[in-house]
Each structure stands twice: as C-alpha cells, then as structure tokens.
Design a protein that fits this description.
Blueprint (H helix, E strand, L loop, with lengths): L3 H18 L3 H5 L7 E6 L6 H4 L7 E6 L9 H13 L4 E7 L3 H8 L6 H4 L1 H9 L1 H5 L4 H21 L2 H8 L5 E8 L4 E8 L1 H4 L2
The structure holds zinc ion.
The site of zinc ion has 7 residues, from helix 5.
Length: 202
C-alpha cells in the first residue's frame, strides 16, 4: 500500500515512463475521448476497470457506485448514461459487479445503516423475488454470489427499459447492454447477460 506522499511520486514516475516512450501521449490524450464502453461498476477498491481489462486511458467512460446499481432517480448515473449514449455514442454499456461484494452482503444481512440500507434496497427486492432459489443454496458465500449475479442481470434489464437506451435503439443506434461479473478470488471477468441491438432495433 502506498503512503500519501508516494501517490504523487508514483504519478510523476508514471508520467516520465510514458513520456520516454511517446512524448506526445498526454498532448494527444487531452484532445478528445472516444470510449466505446460505458462501465457501470461497483465502487469496490478492487474493481479498477482499466487494470482488470488491461485497457488504456480513454477506453472506458465510468460510473461507479456501491454494488453497481442502476436507479432511474440517481441523477449522477442518469447524467453519465445520457452523456455516454447520446454524446459519446458508446457501443457497449456494461454493468460490472463482483463476487464478495460488501453492498450485496449488506442487503443480504439486512444491515441497519441510515445511508447504506436504503441504497441497497433494490438488492433486498432481488433477494425477496428469488427467495426460493437463494434459500436452496447451502453455503452462505454461494448465496451471496448468486445474489450478486441476479442483481447484475436485473440492472441490465432496468437499463434496457430506460428511455435513453430505448430511444437509442429506436434511432437504430447499435448499442449493446451487458452484465459482467468479476471474480476477485481468481481475477477472471465473465459475461452473465447480453442484450443485442439486433433484438431491440425493429
Ligand atoms: Zn461491490
């Protein structure tokens, strides 16, 4: 873990390393962004999109919150979605959750907290809607993992029902919506769900 001062030293060292390879890298980077992906991920400190996909700056437009939730009344998310779909014209929206998610566990355990309990309400609803399936799983970790998966799929379905996304499809915009899950214990990222524009553009 870096100390506070080491953060800035590491930054300057990184700048130097890149400038040694390409002296115009940052000048070019500053001109525009043309990401193909809008990443809606968990705020978890182990979920850095550029690291786990070996990507570069400029490849992901990002919104992250606790437990990667998609709520129509979340103005920050909706502004990001609007900008990503209608201005940046991304090709893919990806909802990316993970196993061992603290937000999912808070919902599962019924954590009583003035801020977190309300925020994870949608996961509590997902739990209630899938009570039988979750109860049939014997290990608690596996119950939580399945709840993570079910919640991600639900967020993808919510996105597909939003006007910003539906309007893009009605204009013929080739926009994919995906649900991915990151396994922190193995480092692997996998796809759970994909909504293909060919099925949505009529
Ligand atoms: Zn999480």
């Amino acid at each position: 873990m870096k100390s506070y001062d080491q953060i800035f030293l590491a930054n300057r060292s990184w700048v130097q390393t890149i400038n040694n390879v390409d002296k115009d890298y940052f000048k070019n980077l500053s001109l525009a962004q043309t990401p193909k992906y809008f990443w809606i991920g968990c705020a978890d400190s182990r979920m850095a999109e550029t690291v786990i996909t070996r990507s570069q700056l400029g490849e992901f437009f990002v919104h992250r919150n606790v437990a990667n939730l998609v709520n129509a009344d979340d103005e920050s998310l909706m502004a990001g979605l609007r900008y990503a779909v209608d201005y940046l014209k991304v090709k893919h929206i990806v909802v990316v959750g993970h196993y061992s998610c603290g937000g999912v566990k808070a919902a599962f355990d019924g954590l009583d907290d003035p801020y977190l309990s309300k925020w994870v309400g949608d996961i509590k609803n997902t739990l209630a809607d899938n009570k039988q399936e979750i109860e049939a799983i014997s290990h608690e970790d596996e119950k939580l993992n399945r709840l993570s998966e079910l919640s991600i799929v639900k967020q993808v379905e919510k996105l597909a029902s939003m006007d910003i996304v539906k309007d893009a499809w009605s204009r013929g915009q080739r926009l994919f919506v995906h649900g991915w899950i990151f396994n922190i214990a193995t480092g692997e990222l996998n796809s759970l769900k994909e909504i293909h524009p060919d099925d949505m553009i009529k």
